[in-house]
Write a structure and sequence with these properties.
Elements (H helix, E strand, L loop, with lengths): L6 E5 L5 H10 L5 E5 L11 H16 L5 E4 L2 H6 L10 E3 L2 H11 L4 E6 L1 H6 L1 H9 L4 E6 L3 H6 L8 H16 L4 E4 L8 H8 L4 E4 H15 L12 E5 L6 H9 L8 E3 L6
Parallel strand pairs: 1-2, 1-3, 2-9, 3-4, 5-6, 5-7, 7-8, 9-10
Helix pairs in contact: 1-10, 4-6, 4-10, 8-9
The protein binds D-glutamic acid (DGL).
D-glutamic acid binds next to α3.
């Protein structure tokens, strides 16, 4: 039986709009509710306990919007707090598991690189999934905390000296390990694909967690017969926990298109 309720997506902030963009491309007929915890971003530098507490509140908020499925677009939540979804009354997907599988299916040399926030890298979630699927794989992980503020400042051009030098410094170890596949394990990193791809070289495949996750969610909804069959124009509802002055600028970079700020609602996530 088709299910016309929206799909819920949450992130620590606006970074998850890169994932929403892929979800909307993959499932143009679905309704989406997005929550970005802009008052508490970043999650990537916080403790596991705090990230878990925030994830629970974010999930609860989406449930209050009558969603049929919840996606943690946030790499950090997916790596640290996916088990918070165990009790949810709806299906849940984080970005780590399918992205790890995609990387294992892509690599020929079994040398895989992972970049993400400090919490994501410290929790070794990608390593765990990859070694389950391919015990002989060699994984090199590096946290790249400066990528998030660079993207949010709009510094994303591949020839920008600051962007390039920062990326070169972060990627040095991964290049030395001669990986042939690199997981972009944070919402913001697809925006830096050009510079990262340029530095890594053509022989390295970049894995965008948003693309992989969108395909996996669609496949699961289809297999459960939960895709939307309505012919009404699909709706996108955006919620944030703080409307900052840079909202429109940052949202445009991450979503790849204009967002009408008036249509975005602010919620107090601590009172859910
Ligand atoms: N959304 C986060 C992630 O994908 C990046 C920003 C943050 O640190 O909260 O890990």
């Amino acid at each position: 039986m088709a299910d016309n309720r929206p799909i819920g997506v949450f992130d620590s902030g606006l970074g998850g709009l890169t994932v929403l963009r892929e979800l909307e491309k993959e499932m143009p007929n679905e309704n989406f509710v997005y929550f970005g915890d802009t008052s508490r971003v970043p999650y990537g530098s916080k403790s596991n306990a705090t990230i878990r507490q925030y994830a629970l509140q974010d999930e609860k908020f989406l449930l209050s919007k009558n969603v049929k499925y919840i996606i943690a677009a946030c790499g950090t939540v997916s790596a640290v707090a996916s088990d918070t979804a165990k009790e949810l009354p709806v299906k849940f997907m984080g970005v780590v598991e399918n992205t790890a599988r995609d990387a294992v299916n892509t690599t020929k040399t079994k040398k895989i690189g992972v970049i993400g926030t400090t919490a994501t890298i410290n929790n070794k979630a990608y390593e765990k999934y990859i070694s389950k699927l391919c015990p002989e794989a060699e994984v090199t992980s590096v946290d790249c905390p400066l990528f998030v503020p660079l993207v949010e400042a709009g510094w994303i051009e591949k020839d920008d000296i600051v962007v390039r030098k920062t990326a070169e410094r972060y990627l040095t170890t991964i290049i030395q390990k001669k990986v042939d596949t690199l997981i972009l394990g944070c919402t913001h990193y697809p925006v830096l694909s050009e510079v990262i791809g340029d530095i890594m070289g053509e022989s390295v495949t970049l894995i965008n967690a948003g693309v992989t996750t969108a395909k996996a969610v669609k496949a699961e909804l289809k297999s459960l017969d939960l895709l939307n069959d309505s012919t009404n124009k699909p709706k996108r509802a955006l919620y944030v926990s703080d409307k900052t002055s840079s909202f429109s600028k940052v949202a445009k970079i991450l979503l790849g298109g204009e967002v009408d700020e008036q249509s975005v609602e602010q919620v107090d996530i601590t009172k859910i």
